[in-house]
Amino acid sequence: MARVYATAEDYANWLDLTTPPDGIARSLARASQLVDWLLVTAVYATDPAGYPTDPDKRAAVRDATCATVAWWEDTGDDTGAAARYTSTGIGSVTLSRANTPAAATPAGAQAARLAPEAMQLLADAGLGDGPVEQEVARWR
Questions:
Q1: From residue 116, how far is each of 67, 80, 90, 112 by CA, in Å?
Q2: By C-alpha distance, which of 100, 92, 104, 105 is closest to 140?
Q3: In which domain of life is the source organism classified (predicted)?
Q4: Three-state secondary-structure class, residue 67
Q5: Distances in Å between the alpha carbon of 129 and those of 38, 77, 99, 119, 123?
Q6: N or C terminus: which one in the chain shows less Cβ crowding within 10 Å?
């Protein structure tokens, strides 16, 4: 089973909400997968389930997960697809590709899904700035 680094209550606390939004558990699970991807080169002690044992690192991973979901809410783009086009249409189909590295490759679209705040939280906890983050920075 995949690790989920934040609960609905964690997310509500992150945004200072009285109650968590509906459907937040799925978003937190998806964001946790993305945080796992950011942690692929990080070295840190874990418990048997794979969660960080250091309380500060565990909090950073939780907060990075919440920051990722908040980023998706702010940008309205949890897939990175919006980064690939500056405009789209349906009637008589009009698509304008963004003039950025994100438009050129799927890796660039993936980078658009990543919250800058999440990467900073992980780096501040000693969990970031590895090859994955360096590649992401290249696409921003």
A1: 9, 14, 32, 9
A2: 100
A3: Bacteria
A4: helix
A5: 9, 24, 26, 8, 6
A6: N
Q: Do the Cβ atoms of 28 and 8 come closer than 8 Å?
A: yes
Tokens 């964001």 sit at which residue? 31
CA distance 64 to 70: 10
Integer Cα distance of 31 and 64 in angstroms: 9
Tokens of 30: 């998806």
Instruction: Give the count of beta carbons closer than 10 Å to the beta carbon of residue 54.
Output: 15
Mean pLDDT in the chain?
78
The strand pairing partners of 107, in sequence order, are: none
